[in-house]
Design a protein that fits this description.
The chain is α/β, with parallel strands linked by helices. Helices cover about 45% and strands about 10% of the residues. The protein starts with a strand and ends with a helix.
Length: about 220
């Protein structure tokens, strides 16, 4: 079946924001006189604050509320310039090509909607997306598949007509549990096994070449 939509995760797929996010968390923890080990920090990648907060709160001593933590996050903001500089190469070219070829484009990120809107605006790419969903809209975070199930519904398509671009273990699992083919952007920094996904790319912009190959195979299959 022809792929009609590409669903992107945001952090680590459209821009190299994971190191920025983890540095922000380190600064917040330091402001409370605490430190999280690197292994636990890496486990936060691709998951929502709502989902990870109980364990994070325990590691911070159990006497810090979610409201206090969120207020502290606001005290260590990531600048729009840093987000723009973190945008991966040729992302805008890829988004333009997808639009020109008639693909629908969606975003399904574990980040808050406020963060999603801030980042997309900072990178000047918000108008490329037909659908944007945040992990805060759901009771469970990735690897729960609900965010991807709902994204497909919002697009008005079937899972077979979509493909997901992810970089985290939680995101890849969520996509597979939603019965959608997943492209993994390979990133060795966070211990993610990209071979759990259906396809692997080193750079997000290589999704264009992958889609062209898949479309060519589909045409050959139909003509045979």
């Amino acid at each position: 079946m022809k792929i009609k939509a590409v669903i992107f995760d945001m952090d680590g797929v459209l821009l190299d924001s994971e190191p920025l996010n983890l540095e922000q968390i380190k600064e917040v923890c330091a402001s409370f006189g605490k430190e999280l080990d690197d292994t636990y920090l890496s486990s936060l990648v691709g998951r929502s604050l709502h989902d990870t907060w109980p364990e994070t709160a325990r590691r911070l001593g159990g006497n810090i509320s979610l409201a206090q933590y969120q207020k502290a996050l606001q005290s260590f903001p990531i600048s729009s310039m840093k987000y723009k500089q973190a945008l991966f190469p040729k992302i805008i070219d890829l988004l333009k090509w997808l639009k020109q070829e008639g693909y629908k484009i969606a975003l399904a990120s574990s980040s808050s909607m406020a963060t999603i809107e801030r980042i997309l605006k900072a990178c000047d790419i918000e108008y490329y997306f037909d659908v944007c969903l945040s992990g805060e809209m759901f009771s469970k975070s990735k690897p729960d598949p609900q965010i991807y199930v709902e994204t497909v519904l919002k697009l008005g398509l079937s899972p077979e007509e979509c493909i997901i671009v992810e970089d985290s273990a939680a995101g890849i699992e969520a996509g597979k549990r939603a019965n959608i083919d997943v492209v993994a952007r390979v990133d060795s920094r966070f211990g993610v096994d990209p071979y759990q996904a259906d396809h692997q790319v080193c750079h997000t912009y290589e999704v264009q070449t992958l889609l062209m190959k898949l479309h060519s195979k589909e045409k050959e299959s139909l003509s045979s």
